[in-house]
Amino acid sequence: MTYIRSFLNIVALPLILLFIWFLATLGEASFFVPTPQLLVETFINTWTADRFVGDVFPSLGRLIAGIALSILIGIVGGLLIGSFRWLRALLEPTLEFFRAIPPTVLIPVLMLLIGIGDEMKVSVIVLGAVWPILLNTIEGVRSMDEVLADTSRTYGMTKINSIRYLILPSAMPQIMAGIRQSLSIALILMVISEMFASTEGLGFAIVQFQRSFAIPEMWSGIVLLGLIGVVLSFIFQLAERWILGWYHGLREIEQSA
Amino acid sequence: MTDESSSPGLDPRGDAPRNREEEVHRLHRWESSAAADRRGGDIRRHTDVSTSAGLDIATRPDPAAPLTSVAQSGATGRATTSGPGRARRRRRRGWSTRLLGAAGVLGLLLTWEIVPRVGLVNERFMPPASEAIGGLITNFGLTDFWVAVFDTMHAWALGMVIAVTMATALGFIIGSSTFLRRFTNSTIEFLRPVPSVALIPLAVLLFGVGIESSLMLIVYACFWQVLIQVLYGVADVDSVAMNTARSYGLGPVARMRHVTFPTALPYIMTGVRLAAAVALILAVTAQLIIGTPGLGAEISRAQSGGNYVSMYALVLATGLLGVLINLVMRMIERKVLSWHSSVRTEVAA
């Protein structure tokens, strides 16, 4: 019974919204909004294997490369900056400024400096997505328990060991929070970098549909982007549950105690 | 969500706030997005005001603050990171920190000045810092520049107002009913990760280069930021406070005004602060790609016209605007929530 109820809770509103959409487009065909049936049809016809190879995979490749680089740079840089107080003081205002620049305005700059190839698009993603990870890592390293740090030093832990067993785990919850925020930024920047200057990719395809007034196809692209966003956040949740499993477990024990 | 939250005692120093914090963290397991935005000083500043570690947690103005790590809370509690000793240390470090920061900025500018001058990159594509800053200063004297700034800020402000109003109203309605919360959960979780820029083509078709295009993107992106925070805030209401208000005969509206709203306010402010940054990004992006008038469109024009000095100057300007917005939002947050920490400190003392 409770299962049925929770299932109803999940599907009820989406179904109602779909139904409203269906009713609203029932009468005269609107130019801007396709009917649900037409959209599903177009989606299947538009996003064929060909298009996936030509447009979607290159986009996803750049997205993944950008995210991976952001995570790497963010964590390594964050560990460095977070460990040295003077370095943090030295770089903080500069980082604050770079973080405040809307990453999209760097697209024209990067186009000038490194052309319009994949490097530019990946750099744009990194330049936007690295900040939440970097700043959260700094904060995570900085807020580490002093007694634990002193203990590990007293016990003669080597630098590498203390990074591996002490600093990284204690900063990990914050790092994951940063990565979560970066994912959505990375996706946005992937699309925009392709809308700006590109000959292939998801963003390019959608803009192309719009310019040729292929409205249902354009909508199908928007839906695909939405699905990618949802899948990305789902994958992240799984990853977080796996990486931070020990942490959530500990929290629950603490809580019930 | 919080229906089962253990009813904590009224002593803010006791275990109760920690339980509540735990509760909040459980809710925030997936939503620690504000964590990234919570910058160095915020929490420490509040730590300095409060006198006990427990209070530090209770008055934390940033509800989505990152889950405090186990390493921190597990072994020794939080006493080591707060307290008067820490405050003294901070004050002494104050201006040397500032000096180092200035040195960092200067170093960056110097690098930017030297790299094009010695020919590491083409001077035409990356003019030295002095020229870009000169261009920025020239801009300050031009009407066109200020019109562009005004256009950008206009879209930003309007989008913020619409998004915050809608999200707060809807958040209070949805948050105050368990049924509605369960009913809308799946839809919200599905629509939230949809990237707002996916709507750019649609916005262009519907509104062309009008300000409505930017507004549509800004409102969509900011709406979720604020809505999620409001939902958490409304769910965080202390059940003892709520029951007390009810037995004192406060009506639904009065309870909303005197119990729910003050609880949710810190959350709302966090949402608004995050949304402010997002709104600027989307305002500029819409101008850059769609061509809505504003700083973004100016950058695009400077770039296609080969006026690279002016392009760099405009990029600097958007950065400064971003810093300014961050500062102002943080100031507003501190103003609006000043009662939050100070009142509790008095109770504790």
Automatic annotation (TrEMBL), chain A:
Coiled coil: none
Xref: PROSITE patterns: ABC_TM1 (PS50928)
InterPro entries the UniProt entry points to: MetI-like, MetI-like_sf
Keywords linked to the UniProt accession: Cell membrane, Membrane, Transmembrane, Transmembrane helix, Transport
Pfam family, one: BPD_transp_1
Recorded GO CC terms: plasma membrane
Record membrane topology: Multi-pass membrane protein
UniProt protein name: ABC-type nitrate/sulfonate/bicarbonate transport system permease component
Species of origin: Nesterenkonia aurantiaca
UniProtKB/TrEMBL annotation, chain B:
Source species, domain of life: Bacteria
Keyword entries, A-Z: Cell membrane, Membrane, Transmembrane, Transmembrane helix, Transport
Start and end residues of each stretch annotated as Disordered: 1-93
Biased composition (Basic and acidic residues): 12-48
Family indicated by similarity: Belongs to the binding-protein-dependent transport system permease family.
Annotated ranges, domain ABC transmembrane type-1: 149-333
Taxonomy of the source species: Bacteria, Bacillati, Actinomycetota, Actinomycetes, Micrococcales
Full protein name: ABC-type nitrate/sulfonate/bicarbonate transport system permease component
Organism of derivation: Nesterenkonia aurantiaca
Bilayer disposition of the protein: Multi-pass membrane protein
GO cellular component terms attached to this protein's record: plasma membrane
Subcellular location per the Swiss-Prot or TrEMBL entry: Cell membrane
Pfam families hit by this protein: BPD_transp_1
PROSITE patterns assigned: ABC_TM1
Biased composition (Low complexity): 73-85
GO-annotated biological processes: transmembrane transport
Transmembrane parts of this sequence: 95-115, 155-178, 190-211, 217-235, 264-290, 310-329
